[in-house]
Amino acid sequence: MRDDAAFSDPQRERMIFVGRLFIGSLAILILTIVLLLRYFDLQVSRHEDFATQSNKNRVLVRPVAPPRGLIYDRNGLLLADNRPSYDLTIVPERSENIDSLIGALDNLISVSESDIQRFKQKLKRRRPFEQTILRTNLSETERAILAVNSHRLAGAEVSARLIRSYPFRELFAHSVGYMGRINERESRTIDALKYSGTVSIGKVGLEKFYESQLLGTVGSEQVETNARGRVMRVLEKTPSIAGDNLTLHLDSNLQRVGYEAFAGERGALVAIEIETGGILALVSAPSYDPNLFVNGISQKNYDGLLYSKDRPLFDRAIRGQYPPGSTIKPLFGLTALASKAISTNFTIQDDGFFYFPGIERPWRDHNSATGGHGAGVGLAKAIIESCDVYFYELGVRTGIDKLANYAVEFGLGHTTGIDLPGERPGIMPSRAWKRGARGQSWFNGDTINTSIGQGFMLTTPLQLAVMTARIASRGDVRTPRIVKAINGIDIGPDSEIGKIEIDDRYWDYVHKAMEDVVHSGRGTARSINTGLDYRIAGKTGTAQVISIDTDDKYDSSKLEKRQWDHALFVAYAPAENPKIAIGLIVENGEHGGLSAAPIARAVFDAYMQSRAQPTVVSR
Amino acid sequence: MHRYDFVRQLNSPGGDRKRSRAMHVDTPLLLLLLALCGIGLTVLYSASGESIFYVKRQATFMLFGLIVMIAFAQLKPRFWERWSLFIYTAGLLSLVLVLFFGVGAKGAQRWLDFGVTRFQPSELMKLAVPLMVSAYLSNRYLPPSFKHILAATLATMLPVFLVAHQPDLGTSVIIFSSGFFAIFLAGLGKRYLISTGLLVIAAIPILWFYVLLDYQKQRVLTLLSPEQDKLGAGWNIIQSTTAIGSGGWNGKGWTEGSQSQLNFLPESHTDFIIAVLAEEFGLMGVMTLMLVYLLVIARCMFIAINAQTMFSRLVAGTIGLTFFVYIFVNMGMVSGILPVVGAPLPFISYGGSAIVTLFIGFGILMAISTEPKRI
Fold first, then answer.
1. pLDDT winner (highest mean) among A116-125, A362-371, B351-360
2. Nearest-CA distance A96 → chain B (Å)
3. Is the dihedral of CA A123, A124, A126, A130 positive or negative?
4. CATH superfamily of A252-612
5. DSSP letters along A441-472, please?
6. Which residue has the higher pLDDT, A233 or A438?
7. Which sequence spans correspond to the domains of chain A?
8. Is A326 a known active-site residue?
9. Class of A62-248 per CATH?
């Protein structure tokens, strides 16, 4: 056995190695001959066959991009359209000299230095006989000039393609979204076949969420080329199939009224059709023009939007998370009644401060400076006049578990499931949440803060609207939806219809209190009831932007406007037969009743008016 | 380097002329590789649709590879022998990491992403396996005993399976060959050779039914009858054989190949680039390239026979033989006698990491060829 040998034998080892190397070389020689015989067979013996085959091989299959589905509002107005855009393209193989061709083109129509630079960049990475764009968006005159001179512009061509356009500009930017060029990351995840011939993809909003429906099915055409690859004729065509058209719940009129009512203020508004959960208006102010993105936005324009202090690109309606403040009070009132923590007869004495046993510093009422809301404050009065001390007491009696459980049923603390990408969940604090997020246990002080919608609690304007719709409908759970119909076929009410069971007496009680917020003499939103010929039920709210010490008094005149409180308002109308619910916020608007409620009133007015005289749409 | 060597050098400045030579470079090998690079860039220009962009990028990779090669040629073979276990272990660990955290494209998971750069452990394994197996066997009595063959086989098959699982059949074939050649050159007995052959035949049905994925089976079926699936998997083979066949003796001329230029040929600048060469330069072009390849391999054999240690011999011989496997697998699959696996044609196909690996391999060869003679 070799293992037992005491010495190795280098000479013998080397001989074995050389012998093996010889066998290896022999194998290489044989396999090389096999390879060369194969190539000889293909290239010499069967050359004639393959040469013929190659000559016939001039039929190319080219993709035909489908027209993208259109997007309409509920009245049939076009929100996203396809319009032709004319580009000047060059195929270098067909021109004698590219530089002189560009020079000639520049004499006829203007070609900027940056156009030429971008063109030369693209030229380096193209496939042979591929059209490379020199200029986009040719005007009609420019096209005419090029057509007249085409005989001396060999290699240059005008080609048309469909691009997206948004006729309402900034009005629907946050709901419809926009398209843009497919970037590298996207190109790795999409199905290359489906997107052959398409250069754009939905980037945000519905354009992104419904990308697969809007895209359509790519077609193809077989074309015959000459030996240099130029298309001679089309042999066969499989037409593309246009993408699905979307009809939205959105109402352009309400959207415009809502957007304009913000009048330069920052904020967001969501209006929901209570019966269906359909979104009638989704406003995030300020907004931006989505058309800027379609043909590639310039860096300067993009930086302007991105770094603006007002953050126009940010969709406050579904991504903005704010403390709900007092708008949460009707919900927590219902919760306390339904879980028998209080009765409708329960009253307290409010001197402006709330003391919790064992804690020295009191919680303040918002009007503690004027001595609170006085004696005999019941739930109705606490909602109508927004009494904080009452709700501190209510919160402690009900307990965070009940408050959180009901809030979740009303749509808070989790995404609502709207058909838009990027919705944020907000926060409905609970014992489990605090342990998970902060690693701390729950304190009574947390419950007290939460009971007036402050502390950890955060909601989006969309969630506030959903909550209000569920209150107004006596507990009908509807997932909010933007798209109403696809290709004219109604999607119908969503499958997940639930019902929150609460005694009718309590619904009646809270509804009445919310109506009195607007219609009674002491209601916090009474300023909007002048001249109303229908009834609104609502609740105002104020959310602190900076924390104010118990001993200090909030005084807006001493603060920058960006540190002023946010103003909130939730409401539905008509009060006796609710049709539409609204949740809205005005950033740094100070007081819900004065700055937020009038915006809701404007939208309600527009809605009631359109119901009185239904618009006839000729389509 | 032993400290002792270093001291000896200091004491006798003119003593060892060969060692103190400024550069360790094997000139014939260098010239042959430069010739291959030249052919590669010429064909790539045409295959990429006359794109200077691709040619510049590829030339940059080649330049980088050349520098790395010459740098590695300055290390002593002894260095590789010492570090082989470490390199191998590191490579194996990163292959396991790829299994869990790898990123990739087209369904294969091959890369480790470090943010700034990406790293493909299977490329490292192409060199780590022959180094490791050679180092292991050269320190045992040869021809190797059954126990040592078993250990060397295990060291080879572990990375082969991990890479095949990614899936990257082309690379796993290369890794398998390099390990096998090292064992074979060390003196694998005839008995083992025959029984391995039988084992492989017996393993085919198992591979077919349990290991190969559907698309891989499809490629084998396509090889047997490409006409069955004209627009699917068979398309590549039909188009590449048409390109090769229509080239004839002398070819259609540089950048004049209609198959390649009109986009009928898929992957024309990467795995299928030999079809472009065959179409535009004909059988003469194919034979010229083959000749240069064979000269490179011959030079490897020469270096192997004259190497100073068993380790150097095994490494040089293995790299030479494995280099042929690259060529055979690629030219075989493009001409339709082997199933399509992802395998580039060395120095001709576009692609950076494969080229750098090749150059490192030849850097080790140059280190072996310039190792000072022992008396």
1. B351-360
2. 16
3. positive
4. DD-peptidase/beta-lactamase superfamily (3.40.710.10)
5. ---HHHHHHHTTT-TT-BB-HHHHHHHHHHHH
6. A438
7. 62-248, 252-612
8. yes
9. alpha beta
